[in-house]
Design brief:
Layout: H1 18-29, E1 35-38, H2 49-55, E2 61-66, E3 73-78, H3 86-93, E4 99-100, H4 103-110, E5 130-135, E6 143-147, E7 153-158, H5 159-169, E8 175-177
Parallel strand pairs: 3-5, 5-8
Antiparallel strand pairs: 1-7, 2-3, 2-4, 6-7
């Protein structure tokens, strides 16, 4: 059985990485309330179901992308069950076809490993090298739930706090984008 703890409202006692420490510092500095659970290591979106049930919302899907030259980087945040097609996303964003960025770039710019990037990890990107793109459908969600820069804990905050407080604190203004998962025209 997949383990998910009871909800707490406190940061972990010890941090696994610098990004995680910065996330909880930002939440404290901004006085943003959060729900937090610890869980077994998550590998796929399917593994998130028990965490979703406990938090009462859905963990978002996060994709770290780059252009062919690896000079422009994007973190795309969308709903957990939305299909992703590079061609459709690139066209909606108005950029040349993107691909998944290398793990080294993920570590360099967001301070996390594969599977741990999310809007909260933008706090690590002090030089604003990563463009944050949020699917407009997520703006309708009351809460935004993501991992905390690890694959063994997840937090949920109000989407309005993410957009109105947290992201300005990180000096990132998200692009809110409509991406039609069905159309390839």
């Amino acid at each position: 059985m997949f383990y998910v703890s009871e909800i707490t409202h406190e940061a972990p006692k010890e941090f696994e990485n610098e990004t995680q420490r910065l996330i909880y510092k930002a939440l404290a500095d901004l006085d943003i309330a959060f729900d937090r659970v610890e869980n077994d290591f998550i590998i796929s979106m399917e593994d998130c179901e028990e965490v979703n049930k406990k938090l009462g919302t859905h963990i978002v899907k996060n994709l770290f992308l780059c252009n062919r030259q690896q000079t422009e980087f994007y973190l795309y945040v969308t709903r957990d069950n939305k299909r992703f097609k590079t061609k459709i996303f690139s066209k909606a964003l108005g950029v040349s076809r993107l691909s998944f960025a290398p793990e080294e770039a993920l570590t360099e710019y967001l301070g996390v490993k594969i599977g741990a990037a999310n809007p909260f990890s933008m706090v690590y990107d002090k030089d604003s090298k990563v463009h944050l793109v949020i699917d407009e459908e997520l703006m309708e969600s009351e809460y935004c739930a993501c991992n905390d820069a690890t694959n063994t804990a997840h937090i949920s905050i109000l989407t309005s706090d993410l957009i109105g407080k947290y992201l300005p604190y990180t000096n990132h203004e998200p692009v809110i984008l409509h991406v039609d998962e069905e159309s390839e025209e």
